[in-house]
Fold:
Amino acid sequence: MNFLEERIMKDGIVKEGNVLKVDSFLNHQMDIRLFDEMGAEWKRRFADKPINKILTIEASGIGIACVAARHFDVPVVFAKKSKSINIEGDMYVAEVESFTHKCKNQVIVSKKFLNPEDHVLIIDDFLANGCALQGLISIITEAGATVEGIGIAVEKGFQVGGRMIRNLGFQLESLAIVDAMDASTGEITFREQ
Ligand code: 5GP
Structure:
């Protein structure tokens, strides 16, 4: 088991509705030493890629992306969630359905901060059905920039997102892949990597 899988076993809580709660170390209270280890691992896995920018999505991706960015020595851009329909023309826009909140959000990135010269690493905390990632990929594509890879902390391997993203040909590096979890027993099964 790697360091993140061990931490999930120790402090993760399996909830009804296929939700894994990791808010004591990942997305509410944040363990920065753990984030630093995650950043180092992504740097190792993407060592051969010419990454010059990290893109994430608010809110829970931001902390992880910022700590990871220290290992790549690049700036972080985060897609902002916006309810507004009147978005000005200087923004890239994508529609994203939230798995946990069951609502649709527009996510926006200013055209100032993504351009065709950018080689982007996407970072996020969770991958479930892949809606958040699809939105970020479409924004990068619209900017004419290149997706160099995707780093995810926890992939829920029993949902469709991981397979879909790998089938599209992207290098997806999930530090923990949960293949099964049971809310009644609390049991979590990780995919062998
Ligand atoms: P997707 O767009 O891949 O369906 O879902 C990704 C987003 O949903 C993540 O950014 C994360 O915020 C949230 N999410 C999905 N599944 C879980 C989960 O089991 N636990 C938590 N805490 N968040 C999740």
Remarks:
- The mean pLDDT is 95.
- The helical segments are 3-11, 32-45, 60-72, 131-142, 161-167.
